[in-house]
Amino acid sequence: MPTLFEVGCGDKTVKLTLAATLLAVLFPAIVAAQQRLPGSYPLTLTRGSRLLVAAEINGHAVEALLDSAAEATFIDSALASELRLASDATVTGQGSGGKSFDARLIRGMQLRAFGITLSDQTVATADLQDVGQRLLGRKLEMILGREIFDAARLQIDILGQRVTVLAADTAPPGVRLQLHREHGVETIPVRIEGHGPVRATFDLGNGSEVLVGRGLAAKLRLLSDGRSVRTESGGGLGGEITRQVVTLRSLEVGGSIFRDVSAAVDTQPSASDLNVGVSILKNFLITTDFSAHTVWLERRP
After folding, report:
1. From the centroid of its chain, how far is CA 247?
2. What is the pLDDT of residues 87-119, one digit of tens each?
3. How far is CA 281 from the centre of its chain?
4. Domains of the chain listed by start with CATH number
5. What are the distances in angstroms from CA 4 to CA 31, 100, 123, 127, 129?
């Protein structure tokens, strides 16, 4: 029976609420983490604030969008056909653009990135061409999800455009924040205009504004307190969507306060209270350790 899952990419996290799939993904990642070696790898920051990395699927080299809030890796359906990858299940997806689409699950895949090899992985396939054209201006073959974050301690320098695999006993610099999983994605504590702490999705796949869930936006009267409201287009898989955008007077992340922060109101029913992406996180040297439920943020000078 088809299972409904939610997917977005760009200014919405990629979500896959399939417990059996996630179990199939997580255990191999833990095993692979014991085999990886420290090293440093290039990271491309696009003009649209997307993060691209070199990766492989079954030995085939691809350029992948790095997304810490993606519960599973996605590959483009055309690439899956080219590689003759056979699926064993079909699911129905709901994109951040509001339109549903079909996706297929493929088991037994090998993923590789940052010198880390993950075997026996389950990935999903979907048509990523529209998303690629809108976000990158070219084709997108893969969205590399949280499997790679579960597998190793990663230090991510967005402006320096490097990802470094650290030894598990390395003491990272910066403010230590506890990660909590909510609706399948990792969240960090933040404060918005003095309110909080509020849980915010830690989303390196979000290359646009901070997102505010409609529930929190209503609670804080962000659309009705007299501040300026404008509209902008956004969305990922499922097509474009128009959102209302406001300016937050302050947003505190990792002990740093950001002023006059642009934030779009996310009206999706599953939206988290907040979603913090590259627009904010690029200001930090980031160290992630999903297996230890921890992230460190060191403010860049």
Report:
1. 23
2. 877 766 554 445 666 778 999 999 999 999 999
3. 12
4. 4-152 (2.40.70.10), 175-299 (2.40.70.10)
5. 29, 9, 16, 17, 21
